[in-house]
Amino acid sequence: MGSRSDQIRIEFEDVTVTAGTVTILKRVTLAFASGLPTVLIGPNGAGKTTLLRTAMGLIAPSGGRIRWAGETAPAAIRRAIVFQRPAMLRRTAGGNIRYALRAAGTPRSRRRAEEEELFAQVGLQHLRKRPARRLSGGEQQRLALARALALDPAVLFLDEPTASLDPAGTKAIEDIIQDIARRGIKVILSTHDLGEAKRLAGEIVLLHRGRVIEIGAPSVFFAAPRSVEARKFIAGELLV
Prior knowledge:
Blueprint: E1 9-19, E2 22-33, E3 38-41, H1 48-56, E4 63-68, E5 79-82, H2 93-103, H3 108-122, H4 137-150, E6 155-159, H5 167-182, E7 186-190, H6 194-200, E8 203-208, E9 211-216, H7 218-223, H8 228-234
Parallel strand pairs: 3-7, 3-8, 5-6, 6-7
Antiparallel strand pairs: 1-2, 1-4, 8-9
Helix pairs in contact: 2-3, 2-4, 3-4, 4-5
């Protein structure tokens, strides 16, 4: 799992997503490009998870279109997603990684070395023989990151990766995310933690009621927000 230099570009063009009579994303126009992590922030129900799932190709837009690296076929970009509460297979931690490597088509001759590298990357070497479902919440999240990386993605989507973790668990996940980004993998993540957004983001995207409200570098976004919604959200006020 070496460093990557792929040129990533995922473009949302007037994308709308509906579920029954509810509109979750409303005519979103947005582009994700190679570089530092993009962090999605916004209140509950803003559309962050739906945007990630749509970019991953798990949800089809009700309107508009998405282009991956200039193509409309999702296969144009290798990508993986880690959910807020990742499901663990009824196997050891090592078994979970080996399953992911097989699913990714990794040649048998390379699996052992890549398994060892993945465990080292997430700091779980000492737990490879433990049943995955007996790991702590933070350890499971780290294992889920390793499984996702086994797929050799060019872009990695993370939905609230540190939700419900203690400060030590949060720091461990953030350190891994920063390492992933240094390796050239594009990270797009959602979070409620503004401190985490400041620490990780190269770009901030504020969503509210399914719309993109404001986009900017964290230094500008937090120091001089342009929108009323951004000013209220940064101040901890309720957005309605």
